[in-house]
Amino acid sequence: MYTYTIRGWRYPAFAVLALFMATLLVACGGPDGSNPPAATPAAVRVNGFGTAANHVHALLALPQHVLILATHYGLFRSEDAGSTWQEVAGGSHQLMDGLMSYALAASPLNGQRIYVLTQPSVSHYPGTPGLYTSADQGRTWKLSSATAQLTSGGIFTEAAGNDTPDEVYIYLPALGALGLRVSMDAGVHFSMAGTLPFGRIDGVLPIPGAPGHLLAYGSNGMASSSNGGTNWQVIQGLNGGIFSTATAGPHSPIYASGDAGIFVSSDGGKTFKPVNAGSSFASLCVSPMQPRIVYGKTGLLVYRSTDGGHTWKALPQIKGNLASLAADPANATDLYLSLSYPSAIYRLQGDSPTWQSLTPAP
Length: 362
Prior knowledge:
Blueprint: E1 2-3, H1 13-27, E2 45-47, E3 50-51, E4 56-62, E5 66-71, E6 74-78, E7 86-89, E8 99-106, E9 114-120, E10 130-134, E11 142-146, H2 147-150, E12 157-160, E13 168-171, E14 180-183, E15 191-192, E16 203-206, E17 214-218, E18 221-225, E19 233-234, E20 242-247, E21 254-258, E22 261-265, E23 273-276, E24 283-286, E25 294-297, E26 302-305, E27 313-314, E28 321-327, E29 334-340, E30 344-349, E31 356-357
Antiparallel strand pairs: 1-20, 2-3, 4-5, 5-6, 6-7, 8-9, 9-10, 10-11, 12-13, 13-14, 14-15, 16-17, 17-18, 18-19, 20-21, 21-22, 22-23, 24-25, 25-26, 26-27, 28-29, 29-30, 30-31
């Protein structure tokens, strides 16, 4: 499953990028660690995820009921669909101590291989900012590459590749069109993938089941590559920026949300057709079980489409700062939603009128 929607709310792609970078670079400190927050937050725990200052950067739902929650103050894991949680990294005297975690990604070729990015969350941090990998579905982690070895700036995002389980892409925004890097050894060594057709991108989507085929998207639109990023072809007809893409897996529709609405590709990302010009969402996710079931999030509401993005229905409203969405890999109509300030997580099962809290007690 790949996750990357605003009914009645329209945001240009650059605004979404600015919002994300503002979250990471201002509230969270610079990606190079040069300007982190001045002090560790007060140690008043409001739930099992920590203090009211904690907030979510990414959420991943994996097979076998595994959930991974990347937050500003800790990386958490559940292996019973959220009934219980364990802080596996980012805590005091743990790996990633003093680091926030963000941009989770799972290999489509090996569900045990997980990637996560980190950067400082406090002024004094024992951990090393960079790309971390797990070979056991997030139970344990190791540092693959330190940020300082790759760039004097930060790593904006990463994407698990579609060629081998150890292929991973990262984007270094300080390098602009030259910032896409690829590793074939799970992030230990990186090389330049090729020159992007845009000066800056919001994300990369390796197309499942199609080795070497990539989509890169941002405020200038979207482009496709069939050779691992060496060469690119700009996709026509999108009429603006793209700031979110998602697909369920090999041979499934690819969804894109942007300035001009919702688009769908049924030919592996070669072309996209508009399916709903009136809806546009900040983030998308797709059910791995039913590729025509798509979820989208605005600033206030979560929506579900059961017809491949043509029509959307608002799900029960929940109070709080909506953060990340993740579709349940085993149940097509079940959805996980994280909140921030404080970090929290909920599950909606089918057509239930209420969200079920999965947030652990302090």
